[in-house]
Design goal:
single chain, alpha+beta, OB fold (Dihydrolipoamide Acetyltransferase, E2P), eight-stranded mixed sheet, about 30% helix, about 25% strand
Length: about 475
């Protein structure tokens, strides 16, 4: 007898095998002819396997007929060809073992349709639904593809700190980490906190990005990537914001902006191609049940086959100013383009993904390479139809004098970034990189409306359950 998954049992190759299945009951229907149909799922795929339990089983009356939705069980039997509609196989059970019951009165995931918002209250149970099981499998495939993509290209996977004293983005929206007694501090109304009594001897925070630390390894090992959790204390209750999310950040020595743009294009295409190939059943579900236009698969395939447009920020502004479209945010050179502007470029003007580059210096962080015009930096954003920006990156400033000038311009202390400055003192090289938010790309690939539904346990303002 072979232990196999439901996914394997649903294939024609399994017909004739004596197998053991383990999973959870989705439905049970009793026939007047003296047997039961049990739909079983184990999370390995979207579809269930039908188990036929004969009334002659010794525990039929005591156990089988007591199985309710959500109960766990083990099934032994033979996989046979099914005459039922929409299924290639089913299992004729020789033994059904009830493992764990589920109280039918209180189990929340009954046949009644629940909203996605309601299911967030049951984040510990929602993976058992079709939607969230499919999200989990797609998320797994994308993570697998990320590692494969970079490993196949000779990148080293490095782990950057989760706790840091550096603000990479300069926005200041960081979660502070402390062991100080906050109750005592509040009670005494202390204006100046002496951090020598804190664990790290200085103000410390959860990281917003591993980029700066990744640069240290790129400048020694050539090509590296990070893949880990990041945190933003941004008080945004929108469908695209999380307080805790995962970031992929490759960093490459001897890369300049054109190399960076090509890698980003190849990376996105690989992720979309893999998920279309390896998650066909789940993607068909998202296409038919989640995406309102039912064109999700078509859109992803179009991106896989597209040549991404390269467009300077200045050219983009000229296009937006010349068009007859009315925007909520009027366009002018020097502004940070809004989602509506990005989507117009990708959906209306080019009907294609677009990589914008050479952004105004004044709206970008200190570490981006300054162009000779004195007005722009070699930053880039990858824009895709339906969303706008999905990747942000840049060529990094590797010239010591220019970096110090930029830090002073942005009122940053070079002493606080002494180790980052050192990289420009000792064997400096041109280098570049970018960041991709894992949840943003999963939301795009699945067409899920809210980013809180593509991460197992969402962390948002006022919500830190589970």
């Amino acid at each position: 007898m072979e232990l196999i998954s439901v996914r394997e049992a649903r294939t024609e190759q399994a017909i004739g095998k004596s197998v053991e299945l383990r999973g959870w009951v989705r439905t049970r229907r009793d026939s007047k002819a003296g047997f039961s149909f049990i739909e079983v799922n184990d999370g390995s795929c979207l579809g269930n396997i039908q188990v036929i339990a004969d009334g002659k089983l010794e525990n039929y009356e005591t156990d089988v007929k007591g199985l309710t939705v959500g109960a766990s069980l083990r099934v032994e039997g033979q996989v046979v060809a099914s005459g039922g509609k929409g299924q290639a196989t089913e299992v004729q059970a020789t033994r059904v073992i009830a493992v764990g019951g589920a109280d039918a009165e209180s189990y929340p995931l009954q046949k009644k349709q629940h909203t996605l918002e309601k299911l967030r209250e049951w984040a510990h149970l929602r993976p058992r639904t079709n939607t969230f099981g499919a999200v989990a499998r797609v998320r797994n495939q994308i993570c697998r593809s990320i590692h494969q993509f970079y490993q196949e290209r000779g990148f080293l996977y490095v782990h950057t700190p989760i706790i840091t004293a550096s603000d990479c983005e300069g926005a200041g929206e960081m979660f502070q980490v402390t062991t100080l007694d906050l109750a005592t501090i509040a009670k005494r109304e202390m204006a100046n906190i002496d951090y020598k009594f804190d664990f790290f001897d200085r103000p410390s925070y959860l990281t917003v990005s591993g980029q700066l630390e990744a640069e240290t390894y790129a400048c020694a090992l050539g090509k590296v990537y990070t893949f880990g959790p990041t945190f933003r204390a941004e008080n945004s209750n929108t469908s695209r914001h999380l307080a805790e999310f995962w970031m992929i950040e490759p960093e490459m020595a001897f890369f300049e902006l054109p190399d960076n743009m090509q890698l980003a294009e190849d990376f996105l295409k690989r992720l979309f191609r893999d998920v279309l190939e390896h998650c066909q059943e789940d993607m068909a579900f998202f296409n038919e049940r989640i995406d309102e236009s039912k064109t999700l698969i078509e859109r992803l395939q179009k991106i896989v086959n597209a040549d991404f447009v390269r467009l300077s920020y200045t050219e983009a502004v000229d296009i937006l100013l010349a068009c007859d479209h009315k925007f909520d945010y009027p366009v002018k050179w020097g502004m940070d383009l809004q989602s509506e502007h990005e989507r117009y470029l990708t959906e209306k003007h080019f009907d294609s993904p677009v990589i914008l580059y050479n952004y105004p210096r004044i709206i970008k962080p200190f570490y981006m390479y300054c162009n000779d015009d004195g007005k722009t930096v070699r930053g880039m954003d990858v824009l895709v139809p339906g969303v706008g920006e999905i990747i942000g990156g840049s060529q990094r400033e590797h010239r010591l004098d220019v970096l110090l000038e930029r830090m002073a311009e942005m009122q940053l202390s070079a002493d606080d970034y002494w180790w980052y400055v050192d990289l420009r003192r000792y064997g400096t090289v041109p280098h570049a990189g970018f960041g991709l938010g894992l949840e943003r790309v999963i939301q795009f690939v699945t067409s899920m409306g809210n980013i809180r539904d593509v991460i197992p346990f969402p962390r948002t303002p006022g919500s830190c359950d589970f």
